[in-house]
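Task: sequence design from structure.
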């Protein structure tokens, strides 16, 4: 194994957005084995290279080779920052302070991930963050009043920080000049087997005793339901292969409608001393890699790549096929502005939205 070096940050040109805006690719090197590549287009995490237990290095997130390829691939949100409102808003509408707001529908009559021109399709500004213990880049975006129908000018920042301890941390911040709603997340697709086994080669644990059942449009359909005695009980490490077997999927109405998991779990644990709570633990069955997700958010959306159809070829030359990888999207609850009983996602002038999610790799001693 190579001797550790100081964390390092550099960037290079990486193509153009559809409107001709230049795109940069920022390279983060922990100096201890893990590296990441982040695009200013969509704030996309293009690569996250993590050594296996035997030292073999490979990216554990699905990616595409160019900025132009991401722009052409509408829909999968591969590795992107998602906003203003992650997940779904029923019928693209929500009330706020007595006024109704409408967001363009882009998913079965509902607004998904901020509408058809969300933060995943914007070019963010980027600047390195001085830190002797991490390689870090801060991305910023100004979303104007009325952007996709959302009220208020929203000033957003997301910092990617890859520590010398080989933990990847995302810090989200937002401020507004008018009352608005905010729900930000990250849409990385994780495959710890680096393309060799897909989700059948993984176990997943989600420490949540309740999940949100959804209707045919993936909108919450009633109160949280217990996971006990259902395919949604992932409170212990669970092999994903049997859970995503076609017979299992067809037998459960919730899984059948989505083609797998595309559901929100409410996390059981409260925040620890560092403000983080466990959200998920993913591991390769062969013991090569393991990852823990920790967050300040109250929930996690588990999406098993049900809509991937092998029409895209990843940076590794392999097709991006169904159930190839899993998204673990830490966030508030879907459609919260239409559910007063849910934790609020309203942000008002003078307040600051802050959120943190950390990805730790225990097989490396990370975190």
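Answer:
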């Amino acid at each position: 194994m190579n001797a550790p070096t100081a964390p390092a940050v550099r960037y290079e040109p990486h193509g153009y957005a559809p409107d001709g805006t230049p795109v940069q690719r920022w390279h983060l090197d922990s100096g201890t084995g893990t590296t990441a590549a982040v695009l200013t287009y969509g704030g996309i995490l293009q690569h996250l290279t993590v050594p296996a237990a035997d030292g073999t290095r490979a990216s554990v997130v699905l990616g595409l080779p160019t900025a132009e390829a991401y722009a052409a691939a509408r829909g999968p949100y591969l590795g992107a920052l998602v906003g203003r409102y992650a997940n779904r808003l029923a019928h693209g509408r929500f009330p706020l302070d007595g006024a109704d707001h409408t967001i363009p529908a882009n998913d079965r009559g509902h607004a998904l991930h901020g509408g058809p021109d969300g933060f995943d399709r914007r070019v963010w500004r980027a600047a390195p963050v001085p830190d002797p213990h991490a390689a870090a880049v801060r991305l910023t975006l100004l979303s104007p009043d009325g952007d996709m129908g959302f009220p208020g000018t929203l000033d957003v920042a997301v910092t990617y920080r890859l520590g010398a301890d080989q933990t990847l941390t995302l810090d989200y911040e937002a401020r507004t000049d008018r009352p608005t709603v905010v729900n930000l997340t990250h849409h990385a697709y994780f495959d710890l087997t680096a393309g060799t086994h897909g989700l059948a080669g993984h176990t997943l644990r989600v420490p949540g005793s309740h999940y949100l059942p959804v209707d045919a449009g993936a909108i919450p359909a009633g109160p949280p339901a217990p996971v006990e005695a259902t395919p949604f009980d992932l409170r212990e490490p669970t092999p994903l292969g049997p859970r995503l077997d076609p017979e299992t999927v067809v037998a459960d109405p919730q899984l059948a409608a989505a083609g797998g998991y595309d559901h929100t779990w409410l996390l059981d644990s409260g925040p620890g001393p560092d403000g983080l709570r466990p959200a998920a633990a993913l591991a390769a069955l062969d013991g090569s890699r393991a990852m823990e997700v920790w967050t300040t958010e109250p929930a996690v959306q588990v999406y098993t790549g049900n809509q991937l159809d092998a029409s895209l070829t990843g940076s590794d030359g392999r097709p991006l096929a169904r159930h190839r990888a899993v998204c673990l999207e830490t966030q508030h609850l879907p459609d919260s502005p239409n559910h007063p009983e849910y934790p609020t996602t309203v942000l008002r002038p003078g307040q600051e939205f802050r959120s943190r999610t950390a990805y730790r790799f225990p097989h490396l001693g990370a975190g």
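The chain has a mean pLDDT of 97.
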